[in-house]
Write a structure and sequence with these properties.
9 helices; alpha/beta; six-stranded mixed β-sheet
Length: 263
């Protein structure tokens, strides 16, 4: 009998407390190979703190986080964070306005921003190939400060993928996009879920409408705790969403596999 493959992500007893405020309350969460997760919850439920802990920028009060068996605190944090791709609007504010998009993408493998020198050789070719794959090849030489929100998101996803991480965190990637740009980006995200050797994806969002086919599981948070976690087909429901957002809602699924929510 073959041993079970190691989880992509293992979170055990994760607690974050600041003063008298409990931000996360003993989270247990595992992402197995082949799974793609959506994290749902209202503002203040702990999503941002969970992301910060997963990327090593926030030290938890208690608990353990491991990526492919390497545990934070026992493995060099600078090396471990390279195994977690991260896409967030928070990164945008740290990138210099005159930084070319190609340089932004090329900074991905070292988890850096604002390169000291232009990328060359294989690194440049790979960065260009990823920009092309995400429909953004024409942006290579354009400065960051003139890119639209949608263009920036594509460049940031290409950046995160360049290091071939086993785990990719997408922090509200469609926030601020117009409807057309949002659907184009989500179509590319859906394509990524279908890539055989691609990373496990975690999509953080407020909107069930952004859950494209290809995502397999959902984690639902409220006030720092887990409301429900499991396969989308059996876990995502009106009842669970009412408990998550503390409001009466009606969830429906269309024939194309997309979801809608009415409050």
């Amino acid at each position: 009998m073959r041993p079970s493959p190691s989880p992509i992500l293992s979170v055990r007893g994760l607690r974050i407390r600041r003063g008298d405020t409990h931000i996360l309350r003993g989270l247990d969460w595992t992402i197995a190979p082949g799974e793609h997760w959506v994290v749902l919850g209202a503002n203040g439920c702990g999503k941002t703190s969970l992301l910060a802990a997963l990327t090593g920028t926030l030290s938890p009060t208690a608990g353990e986080i491991a990526v492919l068996g390497s545990t934070y605190g026992r493995t060099d944090w600078r090396e471990l964070r390279k195994r977690v791709g991260f896409v967030s609007n928070a990164l945008t504010r740290a990138i210099e306005a005159d930084e070319p998009a190609l340089h932004v993408v090329a900074s991905g493998p070292d988890a850096l921003l604002n390169l000291w020198h232009p990328p060359h050789g294989a690194l440049r070719r790979r960065a260009l190939a990823l920009l092309r794959a995400w429909g953004a090849a024409a942006l290579a030489d354009r400065p960051w400060g003139v890119l639209s929100q949608g263009e920036r998101q594509r460049a940031l996803i290409a950046r995160a993928l360049l290091g071939r991480p086993p785990l990719l965190l997408l922090d509200e990637p469609a926030a601020g996009l117009d409807p057309v740009a949002r659907e184009r980006l989500l179509a590319l995200v859906q394509r990524e879920t279908q890539r055989r050797r691609g990373p496990a994806l975690v999509l953080i969002t407020h909107h069930v409408e952004e859950i494209v086919p290809g995502f397999t599981h959902v984690l639902m948070l409220r006030r720092g705790g887990i409301v429900a976690a499991g396969p989308i087909a059996t876990t995502l429901s009106s009842r669970m969403l009412e408990a998550t957002f503390d409001a009466p809602v009606r969830l429906r699924r269309a024939r194309d596999g997309r979801w809608t929510l009415r409050v």
